[in-house]
Hints:
Elements: H1 3-8, E1 11-17, E2 23-29, E3 31-33, E4 36-41, H2 46-53, E5 56-62, E6 74-80, H3 83-112, E7 118-124
Antiparallel strand pairs: 1-2, 1-5, 3-4, 4-7, 5-6, 6-7
Amino acid sequence: MTWNDLAQAKYALLTTYKKDGTAASTPVWIAPDGERLVVWTNPKTWKVKRIRRNPSVTVQICDNRGRPLADEVFAGTARILDSEGTEHVRAVVCAKYGLLGRLAIRGHRLIRGADASVGLAITRSV
C-alpha cells in the first residue's frame, strides 16, 4: 500500500498524541490535495487541540468505526489551516465525497456557522 492508496481510501485512522505521549486515534474523511492529505473537522475536537501541541501524527486506512483495514501506517506532520485553507479543504472534500460530502459540509455550516470547522493538512514524513 502507498500514500496514494491511503489518499483514495474512504476513511483514515488519524492518530494524534496526548501530553504524556499516549496515542489517540479517530476515523476521519481524508482527501488528496497534491502531495498532502487534507481533513475537515470541528476546531474544538481533541484531535485539533493535540495537533496544536504536537503536530506529529500517523494515518492508516480504516473503516468508518476506526478499525484498521491495512497494516501500513504512515507517519506525518499535521498543520491547522487558516480560513482560506479551510475553504479549499471543504471544496476538496466535497469533490471526493460527492453529495454526502456536500450535505455534511453545508449542513455543518448552516447549523454551526462558517467558522465552526477547520481544515488540516497532513504531509508525509520521510
